[in-house]
Design goal:
This protein has about 100 residues and is of the alpha+beta class. It has helices at about 10-25, 25-55, and strands at about 60-70, 80-85, 90-100. About 50% of the residues lie in helices and about 25% in strands. The longest helix has about 30 residues, at about 25-55. The two termini are about 35 Å apart.
């Protein structure tokens, strides 16, 4: 599977071309990519909406949240809560909060 970091239109065009090429050999391949494509479209739309919201309100807006392993061995935790924010200037910022939980 190929991964591209491209603008939205180019991304969907490349995925569609890839789907058509892979469906020649096995028609089931085309069906298997459709949920991934739909999820990507939804993620892009959500991200754009949060960027627009941030610009309108002048405050940061949370785009997504997840957990990662702690990156600081001096902290007494195993997991960090991560949040990606849309900023009013059109950029994004990731914030890390240590949970303070050690297993």
């Amino acid at each position: 599977m190929m991964i591209y970091v491209l603008d939205q239109e180019t991304f969907f065009r490349r995925i569609t071309v890839r789907l058509h090429l892979s469906s020649r050999d096995n028609p089931e391949n085309r069906i298997s990519y459709l949920p991934v494509l739909a999820e990507k479209k939804k993620d892009v739309a959500k991200r754009e909406a949060k960027m627009k919201e941030s610009k309108q309100t002048g405050e940061k807006a949370a785009i997504r949240r997840w957990q990662e392993n702690c990156n600081n061995s001096r902290m007494d935790c195993d997991l960090d809560n991560m949040t990606e924010f849309a900023l009013p200037d059109g950029t994004t910022k990731n914030e890390r909060r240590h949970t303070g939980l050690k297993g």
